Predict the 3D structure of the following.
Amino acid sequence: MSKVRFGVIGAGQIGHNSCKSILGHDQAEILAASDVNEPRLKELTDKFEIGKSYTDSAALINDPDLDAIYIGVPNKFHAPLAKASLEAGKHVILDKPFAMNIGEAQGVADAAAASGKLFMVGMNQRFRGPSQTIRKLVADGKLGEIYHAKAFWFRRSGIPRLGTWFGNKSMAGGGALLDIGVHLLDLALFVSNQFKPVAVSGATYTKFGNRGLGEGGWGMSDREDITFDVDDFATALIKFEGGVTVTLDVSWAIHQKDANRHDVHVFGTEGGASLFPGEIYHYGENPGNDDYQVVTPEPQVALVHEERFFNFINSILGDEEPLVNIEESLAVQKILDGIYESCATGKEVRIS
Ligand SMILES: NC(=O)c1ccc[n+]([C@@H]2O[C@H](COP(=O)([O-])OP(=O)(O)OC[C@H]3O[C@@H](n4cnc5c(N)ncnc54)[C@H](O)[C@@H]3O)[C@@H](O)[C@H]2O)c1
C-alpha cells in the first residue's frame, strides 16, 4: 500500500483538526467525507479538497476505495459507526470517548478482533513528548515504586456550546467526565502503566450548564436548545491491582482563579513527576528540603512525530506499533462506567 486512503465521518470542529493532521502525513490521503449536515460537510470537503461527500455515513463506510476511517461525531454514534466500519473491512481511528458504555465498547473490540483490522481510540494526549518521557522513566523504575497518581482538569468556563449535543445525556452519555476527564484518566493510567482497576467510587454534579452558565467556545454543531442533563463536575477514586490509586477531578465549569488548570502528577517512592510541563522531582545527594531537585528530563520519545494519526497510519503500514491498544481503552471505559454507577448507587463499584 503506497498511501492509506481515508474516509472521514464528522465535519465538526475536531473533524477539521483531524483532516489537517491526516494530510500532514505523506503516505495518507482523504478521498471521502461524511456528515449529516450538508453545509458543514461542504465546508470541510472544499477546505481539504476531498473528492467524495456523503450525507449517509453507511455509503462512506461501504466505499470500496477506502482503507481507513476516522470517526469524529457525537458520542452516541461512536460504537455503531466503528463497528460497521470494521465489519466493512476498514481500519478505524475513533475519537474519544470510546463508547457510551462497556457493552458497546466490547462490541467494537469483538468486531476488531473478527476483522483483523486496526482499531485505535485516538487518545492524543498520550503522544505528547512529556507523556512519553515520563512513561519511560516510570517503566525504567527511575521514580521507584509508583503508588499514586493525581489527575485533574479544571476549566472555569469550558462547557462546549450550550444547547448542543454535548450537554445531553442521550447523545453524549455524560459531560465533563467523558469529554475531558477521559483524557487525563487515560493519561494517568498510561504513564503509570496501570490498566487493572479493581474498584472505583465517584460522584458527579450538574451545577452550571443547567443554569445556562459556564459556556466556553468549543463545538461547531448548531444550538438546538437541547436539554443540559450531564455532569459539569466529577470526582473519583480508583483502586488498582497491587494497591496503586488514582484520583481524578474534572470540571467544565467551576469557580476558580485560573481559566484552565490541568495535570497528571505521579507519586513514586524515589521521585515524582508532573506532565504539564514534563518535570521530575526528587531528593539530591543529601536528602532533605535543602537539597531538592526539580528537573526537566531529557526527552525520551519513542514516537518523535507526537501525532496520533501518524502512529495510526504508520501502524497500518507496518512501521510502528499502535500506542493505544483496545484492552487499555476497555479498562478506561470500565472505570468511566464505574464512576457513573458509583454516583447513582452511592457505593464503591467493584470492577472485574
Ligand atoms: N481528541 C480530542 O481532543 C477531541 C476534541 C474535541 C472533540 N473530540 C470528540 O470528537 C467528537 C466530535 O466532536 P466535535 O467537537 O467535532 O463536535 P461538533 O459538534 O463540532 O461536530 C460534530 C459533527 O458531527 C456531525 N454528526 C452528528 N451526527 C452524525 C452522524 N450520525 N453521522 C455523521 N455526522 C454526524 C454533526 O453534524 C457535526 O458536524 C466527539 O466525540 C468529541 O468527544 C475529541
About this structure: The chain has a mean pLDDT of 97. The chain has ten helices and 15 strands. Residues 9-15, 34-37, 40, 57, 72-75, 77, 95-96, 124, 164, 179, 218-221 surround nicotinamide-adenine-dinucleotide (CB under 6 Å). Residues 128-304+332-350 form a domain with the Dihydrodipicolinate Reductase; domain 2 fold (CATH 3.30.360.10).
